[in-house]
Every structure is written in structure tokens, then in C-alpha cells.
Inverse folding.
């Protein structure tokens, strides 16, 4: 039990924390409010059923009143105000109805970009270079000064894979012009113009739902079942045990085994469909928030360089500050930059960073009509300004540390004994997860948390993942922690 003095100190800190948040979102609720006996309630269920008349509603978690949602709080069709620590599957960075973003939306530049919706691949606007230079290029990963904007996370990963294939083939051709045989054979989807190449992914990873990205997705069968896929290889991702300090030897061994499997796979596929690129998430998200050490990724890069395989880092979910650094892979301290870094979600824009050496040989090889969206690039630029002005990356690291330490303490309490297991994400900002013993208990936890006024998400088979916004404060953390303790006690 906390002493009265410590409890008062915590309340004062929470009050100051709320004041910071309230200054950005004056109308943000101070606490959750649940008005219905179930979440979703009758209005939400009816709204979902209405959508179900023309679109599959079975994945609906909530039908949302986005006009009323503010800051860290999401409001559903029944008027329930929930603290949102899932944030549209990790896709909201600076809060619902952020005033600075609302003001941006009222500008002539935003309106013009929205109504023009230019075909950026062929008809970019006179302001396009300025928007990118003062926005997304300001946060480019070290060593990558090229940016190709895309439509979504899946297309960002597909674009990076395609760029890797083009660069790999051009390198193998020695930079020479395409031959007549290559140009003619590719029209029949045949070699040599259509080469047999592959992308290696790691088991448990999720990289998208388009045909190429889906072929590298290895998280859940339901994502892939009944859809044709490329015959591409996969290697195991390290299966770490927690707590890390207790299982240091075992974890080192599983990482070494994974690295060996990667190299063995690359060698085995050289005569079948050579591996042109490997794609990996810094933290496997949909697959259950699975981690590996910085040393693992440094050694992985060494293996890839040894075999001339391009390195694609999928930061679609981890990028834009959620892990306490702007890009999660910054913590790896790679001796050389990765070849490609993809992004989406919290950026609200999408694309991939790369080097000029991986620009395609010819125009139209890496092309689509829209190549992104200028209003999303404007939105990303404004969010970058907010993140920098509020120092939200460092803020997220501090709040994440508080959340992790609090969950670690809760894990030792009787109410959570044997229920809150495999806590992970120390030092990774608010990118924190834990497991429950079974998938049924995890699902029950997520459902019960909504009744306590907290919207949280799951991943993997039995994991709960935190994906709050960068404006998530200690006061919000305390609400989440209190609800977690209560729900664990009821399971």
C-alpha cells in the first residue's frame, strides 16, 4: 500500500500531467464514462448492423463518433467515452481532433491539395518538394535521403520489395540496358525478363495484405487462407523468454539459431529463387509483440551484406516515436544504414525511405497514379512539428517507463499472479505488451476493459498490446493501470 504522503504526491503529479493534456485538448474528458451495460451498446450494435447490409461488419470493435472524440478519448455510437490505448491500431499520434490539425484542415493549401488530388507520379504540384523537404524528409532515417510516398502500410512494404527487386536485377545485369529478350519475355511473365527472385521474411511477422506483402506475412492463418501466394521462404524469429535477465543464455541461443536459419535459407534458395531482400519488423506486432536484441539485428545485417541481400526494416507500426525513439531501429546502432525503411500508421502518410543507389533504372518502374497524397504529407508535416514542439518522443519514453515499472509491480501482486505474464517492452516507450495464460482469458480481458472505460487491443494468440498516442500522460496511465488491476482480479 502507498503511504498517504506518496498517494498525495502521485495525485499532484497526475493533476499536473492532466493539465498538460488539457491545455492541448480543453474538452478532453478527465476520466472514462461508460453509459451502457455492454460495449458496444445498443446504438453501436445497430450502427454496425446497418453497415453490415453492404460491408462485412464482423471485425468491428466499435462504431465511433469521431466528431465527439477528443485527445486520448474515443467516443462510441452510444456516447461511451473510452480511454483509447489502441489508437486505431497504433495509427493516431497526437490525439483525436487535435486543434493544430483542425486548423491545418481549414487552410487553402489543404483544401487545394484535397480537391486536386494530383497524380503525383506525373503531375506533382509546385509545392510538393517544399512539403516533403520541410516534413517527412526532416525525420528521414540516418543515411537514407530518398523518399517514395505510397498509399498505405501494405503498399509501402510492396514498394520497398519492388525497389529491392529492381535494384537487385540491375546490379546483376551490371547496369546495362534491358535486352530484347528480357523485354519480350517479361510480357509472358517468363525469364529472363521476369526473374525468379524472392523476399525472405521471419515467422510471426506481419507486413500487409496485398499479394506481395501477404506472401511475407506469417502471423495468423486467417490473414492468408484461400489467397494465392508467392513461393517465398521464411525463417524463424527468435523466441525470447521473459524476464530477459533470467533467460539470457537461452535467448542468446535462440537468436543465434535464427541467424543461422536465415543464412542457411539464403544459401539454399540461391539456385531456386535467390533472396533479393529480407523484411523484418523491429518488434513483431500482429504476431504477438515479439522482440529481439539490438545485437541480433546488427548480426542480421552482417549476414545480409555477406550475401548481397537488401535489408528492409518495416517500421509501419513502430515508427514515429511510439518506442521512445523516432524510429525503433535507431536503438540497434547499425554500423551502416538499412537499405529501406517503410512507414505508415502514426505518420498518417505512407512510403519508404531508401538510398539513391536503389532508384529504379527507368521511369515508370516504380510508379502509380497517386504515389501518396499531398494532404497526408501536409498532415504528417504538421504532426512532426507538434512532436518536436512538445518533445513527445522523449515524453513517450518517460511515460512508457512509468507504465512498464507499474505493470512490473502489478505482476508481483496476488491479484495478477499467474495472469499477467511475459511482460515485455522495457525501454521501448509505450510499446509494451504482456500475455494472459490463454487466448480466451485475453479476449475476456479486452472485453472487460471496455466496460471499465478503456479501449485496448490484442495481438498474437494471447497477448495484450499497448498502443497509446504520443500525448498519453501519466494520468491516463494510472486509469489504464487501475482498470487492468480490477479486470485481472475478476478473471
Amino acid at each position: 500500500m502507498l503511504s498517504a504522503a506518496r498517494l498525495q504526491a502521485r495525485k499532484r503529479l497526475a493533476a499536473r500531467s492532466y493539465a498538460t493534456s488539457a491545455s492541448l485538448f480543453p474538452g478532453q474528458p478527465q476520466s472514462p464514462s461508460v453509459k451502457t451495460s455492454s460495449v458496444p451498446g445498443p446504438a453501436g450494435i445497430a450502427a454496425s448492423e446497418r453497415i453490415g447490409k453492404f460491408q462485412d461488419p464482423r471485425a468491428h470493435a466499435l462504431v465511433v463518433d469521431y466528431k465527439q472524440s477528443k485527445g486520448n478519448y474515443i467516443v462510441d455510437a452510444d456516447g461511451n467515452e473510452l480511454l483509447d490505448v489502441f489508437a486505431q491500431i497504433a495509427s493516431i499520434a497526437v490525439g483525436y481532433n487535435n486543434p493544430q490539425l483542425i486548423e491545418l484542415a481549414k487552410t487553402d493549401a489543404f483544401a487545394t491539395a484535397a480537391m486536386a488530388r494530383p497524380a503525383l507520379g506525373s503531375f506533382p504540384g509546385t509545392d510538393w518538394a517544399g512539403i516533403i523537404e520541410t516534413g517527412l524528409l526532416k525525420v528521414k532515417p540516418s543515411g537514407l535521403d530518398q523518399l517514395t510516398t505510397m498509399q498505405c502500410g501494405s503498399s509501402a512494404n510492396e514498394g520497398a520489395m519492388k525497389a529491392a527487386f529492381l535494384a537487385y536485377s540491375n546490379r546483376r545485369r551490371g547496369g546495362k540496358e534491358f535486352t530484347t529478350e528480357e523485354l519480350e519475355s517479361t510480357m509472358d511473365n517468363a525469364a529472363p525478363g521476369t526473374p525468379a527472385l524472392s523476399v525472405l521474411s521471419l515467422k510471426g511477422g506481419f507486413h500487409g495484405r496485398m499479394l506481395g506483402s501477404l506472401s511475407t506475412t506469417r502471423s495468423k492463418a486467417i490473414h492468408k487462407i484461400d489467397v494465392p501466394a508467392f513461393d517465398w521462404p521464411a525463417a524463424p524469429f527468435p523466441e525470447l523468454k521473459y524476464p530477459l535477465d533470467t533467460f539470457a543464455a537461452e535467448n542468446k541461443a535462440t537468436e543465434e539459431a535464427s541467424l543461422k536459419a536465415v543464412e542457411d535459407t539464403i544459401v539454399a534458395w540461391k539456385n531456386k529463387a535467390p533472396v533479393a531482400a529480407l523484411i523484418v519488423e523491429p518488434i513483431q506486432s500482429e504476431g504477438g509483440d515479439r522482440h529481439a536484441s539490438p545485437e541480433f539485428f546488427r548480426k542480421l545485417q552482417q549476414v545480409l551484406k555477406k550475401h548481397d541481400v537488401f535489408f528492409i526494416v518495416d517500421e509501419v507500426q513502430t515508427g514515429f516515436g511510439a518506442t521512445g525513439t523516432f524510429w525503433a531501429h535507431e536503438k540497434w546502432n547499425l554500423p551502416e544504414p538499412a537499405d529501406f525503411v517503410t512507414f505508415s500508421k502514426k505518420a498518417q502518410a505512407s512510403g519508404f525511405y531508401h538510398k539513391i543507389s536503389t532508384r529504379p533504372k527507368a521511369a515508370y518502374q516504380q510508379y502509380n497514379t497517386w504515389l501518396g497524397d499531398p494532404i497526408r504529407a501536409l498532415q504528417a508535416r504538421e504532426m512532426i512539428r507538434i512532436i518536436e514542439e512538445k518533445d513527445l518522443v522523449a515524453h513517450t519514453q518517460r511515460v512508457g517507463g512509468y507504465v512498464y515499472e507499474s505493470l512490473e509491480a502489478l505482476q508481483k501482486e496476488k491479484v495478477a499472479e499467474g495472469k499477467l505474464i511475459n511482460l515485455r517492452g522495457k525501454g521501448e516507450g509505450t510499446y509494451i505488451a504482456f500475455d494472459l495464460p490463454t487466448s480466451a482469458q485475453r479476449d475476456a480481458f479486452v472485453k472487460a476493459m471496455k466496460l471499465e472505460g478503456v479501449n485496448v487491443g490484442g495481438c498474437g494468440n494471447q497477448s495484450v498490446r499497448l498502443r497509446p498516442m504520443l500525448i498519453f500522460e501519466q494520468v491516463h496511465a494510472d486509469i489504464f493501470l487501475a482498470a487492468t488491476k480490477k479486470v485481472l482480479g475478476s478473471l
The two ends are 22 Å apart (CA to CA). Residues 9-22 have pLDDT under 50 and may be disordered. Residues 416 and 488 are 6 Å apart (CA to CA). The chain is about 40% helix and 10% strand.
